[in-house]
Design the sequence.
């Protein structure tokens, strides 16, 4: 078997590592970048994190308070009030000057004209127990203070009644039909009918 040995001499031949692009074959250059692909689907939602600690409680607030005074006539010609408002910073329930935040003056309105007088109302009915007449049995005696009776609106007679002409067991009473005698010392005897009218007197002045 025979062999052919080929020996190439590279002496005096320099290899240029930089080759101008124009000398690179077109099919050896990089192509243009392609379009971005479609975004992928979102991943699954992760678990919620651990709840943080509660914050510290805030400071208590202050109550609103107010004070009221009388407005001077220079502010309100027809009178009025001055209303002061603010926060009770020292919590003593009293509005101090330093706590006052706003002041309002509220004046009374002017007096209106007098209205037309109304129509007089109907007189109230007379009470059945109102005295409407004086009854004087046997008339006015010239020498004594006579007994008198009161007749009420309902027709009854009221008088001071006793057990006898001397005034024993005197009491205030309602008259009734019958024969009676006064206790004033006059000796007047009189008769009351069923309507409590005097129908007989043994004498009359």
Sequence:
């Amino acid at each position: 078997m025979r062999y052919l040995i080929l020996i190439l001499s590279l002496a005096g031949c320099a290899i240029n590592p930089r080759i101008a692009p124009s000398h690179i074959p077109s099919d050896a250059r990089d192509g243009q970048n392609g379009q971005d692909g479609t975004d992928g689907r979102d991943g699954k939602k992760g678990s919620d994190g651990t709840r943080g600690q509660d914050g510290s409680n805030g400071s208590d607030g202050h109550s609103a308070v107010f004070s009221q005074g009388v407005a001077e006539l220079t502010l309100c010609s027809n009178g009025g009030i001055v209303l002061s408002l603010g926060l009770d910073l020292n919590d003593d329930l009293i509005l101090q000057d330093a706590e006052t935040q706003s002041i309002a003056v509220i004046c009374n309105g002017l007096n209106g004209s007098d209205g037309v007088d109304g129509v007089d109302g109907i007189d109230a009915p007379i009470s059945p127990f109102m005295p409407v007449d004086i009854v004087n049995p046997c008339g006015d005696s010239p020498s004594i203070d006579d007994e008198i009776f009161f007749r009420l609106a309902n027709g009854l007679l009221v008088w001071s009644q006793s057990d006898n002409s001397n005034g024993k067991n005197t009491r205030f009473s309602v008259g009734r039909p019958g024969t009676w005698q006064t206790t004033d010392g006059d000796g007047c005897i009189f008769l009351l009918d069923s309507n409590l009218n005097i129908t007989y007197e043994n004498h009359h002045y």
Notes: The beta strands are 64-70, 80-87, 100-107, 131-135, 149-152, 157-161, 171-174, 178-181, 189-192, 198-201. The two ends are 201 Å apart (CA to CA). The first strand starts at residue 64 and ends at 70. The chain is about 0% helix and 25% strand.
